Amino acid sequence: MTFDVPGDAYDRFMGRYSRPLSAGFADLLEVTEGQWALDVGCGPGALTEQLVERIGAERVSAVDPSAPFVEACRERFPGVDVRQSAAESLPFDDATFDVAGACLVVHFMADPVGGVGEMRRVTRRGGWVGATVWDLAGSRAPMWPLWEAVAELRPEHPGEREFPGGSQDGLVAIVRDAGLRDVESVELSVTVTHPSFEEWWEPYLHGVGPAGDVVAALGPDGRERLEEVLRRRLGEGPFDLTAVAYAARGRA
C-alpha cells in the first residue's frame, strides 16, 4: 500500500505520534555514531530525522514507494540518500548498512516477510534489523477512537485489527520468518496532548491511510454522524491519547 498524499498531510495525521515513537525505536536499534543506517518506508522522515541526528545525513539512506513522501524527505533532509522503492526490492548491495529499521510500515508491505528479508540482506552480519507496528489487534493505535466510533456506525467494517504484524506475536513471526537471529520485542508507548477536538479531527479529513479512506467513504452525512459520535466520546479538548506500538528487532 502506498500513500498518495502530501508529506505535510501525513505529518499532521501521524507525525505527531510517529516522531516520538521513532526516538524510542532508534534507541532499540542502538543507532550510534559511525554507523550506516537505512530507513525503510521512510514517509516524510520521522525515523530519518532520528538517524540524521545520531549519525549524520551522509550516513543515512531512506526509501519509500510514495513519490510525495520521497520528495518531502529529500527536502527536509538534504544529504540523505532518499530513493523511491518498495521494501521488497531494495536498491542496495548486500551488507551495505550497519542497521535497518522500518517504522510503522510492515503492515502495509505487499510481502512483509519478503520486505524484512530484504532489510536483512542489505544489513551487515550482526547488525540490528527492526520494525514497529501499532498494536492494531489490541486497539491501542492512535486511531483507536476513530475505529471504535466507526464500529458504532458501521459494525461490519473490519478496521485494522487483521493487518499483518498488528500484534506482538504477528510482528515477531514476520521478523523470525525473514531469517533474523536473536529476535526480541518490546512495547513502546506514546502520549500526545491534543489541544482541541478540531486539532485531532482535521487530519482525518485528508484521506491519509485506511482511516482517512473510511472517513472519505462515509460521505458528508456519514462524516457528520461520525464527528458527532467522536465529539461525544472525546469532548472538546484538551485531551491526552496514548498509543502503544510493538517493536521487534533481530540480528542479520
TrEMBL record:
InterPro entries: Diverse_substrate_MTase (IPR051052), Methyltransf_11 (IPR013216), SAM-dependent_MTases_sf (IPR029063). Gene3D superfamilies: Vaccinia Virus protein VP39 (3.40.50.150). Residues 38-129 form the Methyltransferase type domain. The keyword Zinc does not apply. GO terms for molecular function: methyltransferase activity. Keywords: Methyltransferase, Transferase. The keyword rRNA-binding does not apply. Belongs to the methyltransferase superfamily. This is Class I SAM-dependent methyltransferase. It comes from Nocardioides renjunii.
